[in-house]
Amino acid sequence: AHPSSGPSLLQTNLSTRLQTVPIANLSKIYNACTSPTSKYLIAAGNLAARVECVKACEPGLCCYAEILRNAGLIDSSGNPANIQTCFDSNRGICEGYSGCLALTLPLNSAQ
C-alpha cells in the first residue's frame, strides 16, 4: 500500500516528534539525584555527585532542557548545555525524570 499522504505524514510526525525518550530508570535516578545524600552533595557543589546525576538522567535531560539550561547546566566542554526540549512529545515519560531537577538545586541549599 502506498497512499499519497503516507510519506508527508511520516515526515511531519518525525519533525514534530524530535526524539523518543526511554522510560526513566527510577532507582538509578533516586540513587544519583534524589536520595538525601545525593541531594546534599549536589547542593554542596560536589562535582562527582552532579556528574552521576547527569549520567543517570542523560536519556531524559531533554525533558527539562529549558529549566536545566537556565540553572546553568554545562556540557563536558564547559559550554551552556545545548539540549532541544522533548517534553511536549514525551510528557508521560518525562515525569519519571523529574528527580533530575535536583541538578537545579541552589548550591548549599541542602539542610
Descriptive account of the structure:
By secondary structure, the chain is mainly alpha-helical. It contains 6 helices and no strands. It has helices at residues 6-16, 26-34, 36-43, 47-57, 65-70, 91-94. 25% of the residues are buried. The model is unreliable at 2-17 (pLDDT under 50).
Low-confidence stretches: 2-17
- Distinct helical segment count: 6
| Average pLDDT level | 82
Report the principal-axis shape.
globular
> Biggest sheet: strands, sense, closure?
none
Oligomeric grouping of the chains: single chain
The proportion of strand residues reads under 5%
Tell me how many strands there are: 0
Q: How do the helices and strands line up, and which of them pair or pack?
A:
Layout: H1 6-16, H2 26-34, H3 36-43, H4 47-57, H5 65-70, H6 91-94
Supply the key terms.
mainly alpha, 44% helix, disordered N terminus
Summarize the structure.
This protein has 111 residues and is mainly alpha-helical.
